[in-house]
Amino acid sequence: MTSVTTSAGRKPGPTSLFGYRINAVGVVGALIVTFWIVVAFAAPMIIPHPVGDIVDTDYFGPMSRELWLGSDYLGRDMTSRILMGARYTLGISVASVIIAGASGVTLGMIAAITGGVVDMVLSRLLDALSSIPSKLFSLVVVAAVGSSIPVLIVTMAVIYIPGAYRFARALAVNINTMDFVVVARIRGESLWYLIRAEILPNIIGPVLVDLGLRFVFIVLLLSGMSFLGLGVRPPYADWGALVRENIGGLPYAAPAVIFPSLAIASLTIAINLLIDNLPTKIRDREAS
Amino acid sequence: MKHRIVSLVLSRLALALVTAIIVSFAVFFATAMLPGDTATILLGQAATPEAVEGLRKAMHLDDPAIFRFLRWLAGVVHGDLGVSYANNMPVAKLIGGRLINTLKLAGLTAVIAVPLALTLGITAAMLRNTLYDRCLTIAIIGVVSVPEFMIATLAVLLFAVYLNWLPAVSFTSEIRTVHDFARAYAMPVVTLTIVISAQMIRMSRAAVVETLNTPYVEMALLKGASRGRIVLRHALPNALGPIVNAVALSLSYLLGGVIIVETIFNYPGVAKLMVDAVSTRDLPLIQSCAIIFCFGFLLLTTTADVIAILSNPRLR
């Protein structure tokens, strides 16, 4: 990432993607994200050593031709562990962002269309939910039910529902007052029809962008929890758990503790860069 | 108009109170209603059914949940937070000293981070689109998109491993001189400062940029006022509300930060206590810590909102 991004004044770049113009920084972001997605799918086929095998005689080994990213605290191959870790970090985060997005956005649209008491109760409840700090919420849940991958997915989904709800509701309220929605209501269309055919198509762009940002927060929260030892548990390891396992190598600046951190940073920064450089056309419908 | 502002503030405070009740309800239920019978956990697997039954009676575990919640809430209000499962000490006693430690850490961070972040944010807004502004923006994107533990890790790598200025991951309780104090606090404070400054710089920059785009600032520019005068005399007083709002909101990020930072640096604060309590499933302790954090968070966000209302000149 050598090129420079500016949040103000987006220049139309040379590249075009799906008919949209997108600049070089955005393309770099997209490439990095694509890279990690491919890795997450292909990990078992491309890892040089099985993740559990001890292949180095030394622990916290340095980078070498044999072991590209050195070895971990037991002498296991870091390259393989990071590539496999992509599955957990991406998989869990994608699952929770889909659940959070689907429920939050649906509830938001229902609240906007129905209005009245439904709207008020939903908004109050979800506001209260969002006034519990996210890390704290997941700590409490892990304390109560223990940590497993399904629990993590659901917990993080619940944490990010209020945000998705508020965003979708704010957009849907604006669309809801438009003539074509009023007409559809007069025709007597059902709530489900209004959501699917009238509201959703008009807010989907900004909503997806917002979910992209939420995905970043989920990745960060998941890594944080795993780092505390309360997220993904051995024998599985996501990137946060890899940092935790190898934190003992920190005083020696072992690659085993640096590279999983870099993996997280590369993914989240790439998503941010990609979203920051998306064409305004997709980014915010309200502005146009 | 005075009347309107008072009623707005009051309704915001009422909302905060309602939220506080819902939140304590949620925390209580999340911890108390979920699987695992408290009496069985306390007495262990080998306990006789009679002993478990007796303890359930003594702890009022068979009462309807709502009564237990109210009893617990009444206890919290009176400062009785219950007894820790792990070592039978009153929770209030366990938390007391730890809370002071956490507040010390948070206070020290705020004292350093707020002036630093505001200076950077406001100057970045003044020098919009210069190299300085762009570098700062990139640095902020970098900081907000990596996990807190990574910033802590990098700080350790830089200051302890490469520069060798400070001890790596360790916290000594013996603080006698200023030197000891600096060595113990430097790393946690630096990490937290970076984490919350990023948000604060971003928000205060946005607030000042917004006021710089208003017609009266353009007017000041046209009448020939200097750049410094425009920002300090014309723009800043009007951006003050949003900036203070931004400060209060950013400080609420401290809560997420301290959980990670206290764990990494082994700092004896409430967050560390809570993380430890989670691994031992010490429910009364977790409940109390959670409530403290939630109320702290609520206090900061409510303050931010009230300041935003008070500083809106249209309501004055």
Structure, described:
The complex is a heterodimer of chains A (288) and B (316). Chain A contains ten helices and two strands, in the order ββαααααααααα. Chain A has helices spanning 24-46, 78-114, 116-130, 134-145, 149-176, 179-186, 191-227, 239-245, 255-276, 280-283, and strands at 15-17, 20-22. Chain A has a two-stranded antiparallel sheet with strand order 1-2. In chain A, helix 2 packs parallel to helix 5 (149-176), helix 4 packs across helix 5 (149-176) and helix 7 (191-227) packs parallel to helix 8 (239-245). The two termini of chain A are 30 Å apart. Chain B is built from twelve helices and no strands. Chain B has helices at residues 2-32, 38-43, 49-58, 65-77, 91-126, 131-144, 148-162, 178-212, 215-222, 227-264, 270-280, 283-310. The model of chain B has no long low-confidence stretch (mean pLDDT 80). Chains A and B meet through helix 3, helix 4, helix 7 and helix 9 of A and helix 1, helix 6, helix 7, helix 10 and helix 11 of B.
Topology (elements, then pairings):
The complex is a heterodimer of chains A (288) and B (316).
Chain A (H helix, E strand, L loop, with lengths): L14 E3 L2 E3 L1 H23 L31 H37 L1 H15 L3 H12 L3 H28 L2 H8 L4 H37 L11 H7 L9 H22 L3 H4 L5
Antiparallel strand pairs in A: 1-2
Helix pairs in contact in A: 1-2, 1-9, 2-3, 2-5, 2-7, 3-5, 4-5, 5-7, 7-8, 7-9, 8-9
Chain B lengths: L1 H31 L5 H6 L5 H10 L6 H13 L13 H36 L4 H14 L3 H15 L15 H35 L2 H8 L4 H38 L5 H11 L2 H28 L6
Helix pairs in contact in B: 1-12, 5-8, 5-10, 5-12, 6-8, 7-8, 8-10, 9-10, 10-11, 10-12, 11-12
Short account of what is shown:
The complex is a heterodimer of chains A (288) and B (316). Chain A has 288 residues and is an all-alpha fold. Chain A has helices at residues 24-46, 78-114, 116-130, 134-145, 149-176, 179-186, 191-227, 239-245, 255-276, 280-283; strands at residues 15-17, 20-22.
